Amino acid sequence: MKIAIMGAMLEEVEPFLELSEHEPLLKYFKKYNDIEYGGNTYHEAKYKDHEIILGYSKIGKVNSTLTAATMIEKFGAEILLFTGVAGGVNPKLKIGDLIAATQLCQHDLDITAFGHPHGYVPEGAVYVKPSANLLHIAKEVADEKNIDLIGGIIATGDQFVADESRKEWIKNTFDADAIEMEGAAVAVVCDAFDIPFFIMRSISDTADEGAVEDFDEFLKHSSQRSSSFVISMLDKI
Ligand code: ADE
């Protein structure tokens, strides 16, 4: 199986790479090739019987769309796993907690002027759903590791939310549990190409006025938690 593992920022995939200051998760990987393509670096690796294509897209919906499509169309990924951090919206989610997206939507997609709901464009859908099988595997991993994994709605937009009123609006409009800047774009790409996907995020902040400081403080630690979880899933795929 060829598996894409992607994040948005270097820090989010760094735990997989040898340059990590953490115990490198890539010690489990046989890293054999780095490829520059379309302004990004893709790492080809092997993990047990799997071929891995690993990389980060840079922040935002356009960049993550490019990377997800490249991993599928150029590198032949058959499954895509996203790992990274998010702002918590559901008050149950504390910094460091893990959320697996059960649905994803774009909170900044707006043609409501034409009478459509927020997040909808014709021939699309407000919510895109990840693979039920990968969610099931995630649940198994969480049970084995005694991790309280929350499944929930992730809202994506080209906006770092550090504002209580915007956060509340997104929460109420989309019933969102967490906010980030790539997941729904990756979901749309995978859905279009019929590639099973999974979006995992660890909470780095709570998308309010303290979000910038929290993000800077917890980005690395939360990225590590998300990456560790994703690598555990590989054994079950
Ligand atoms: N990723 C992590 N925290 C975020 C936030 N508050 N807004 C958007 N994306 C994020």
UniProtKB/TrEMBL annotation:
Residue ranges occupied by any Nucleoside phosphorylase domain in the UniProt entry: 2-234
EC numbers: 3.2.2.9
Keyword Hydrolase attributed: yes
GO biological process, one term: L-methionine salvage from methylthioadenosine
InterPro entries from the UniProt entry: MTA_SAH_Nsdase, Nucleoside_phosphorylase_d, Nucleoside_phosphorylase_sf
Pathway: Amino-acid biosynthesis; L-methionine biosynthesis via salvage pathway; S-methyl-5-thio-alpha-D-ribose 1-phosphate from S-methyl-5'-thioadenosine (hydrolase route): step 1/2
Keyword entries, A-Z: Amino-acid biosynthesis, Hydrolase, Methionine biosynthesis
Organism superkingdom: Bacteria
Class of the enzyme per the UniProt entry, highest EC level: hydrolase
Pfam families, alphabetized: PNP_UDP_1
GO CC annotations on file: cytosol
Gene Ontology MF annotations: adenosylhomocysteine nucleosidase activity; methylthioadenosine nucleosidase activity
Name recorded for this polypeptide: adenosylhomocysteine nucleosidase
Organism: Sulfurimonas hongkongensis
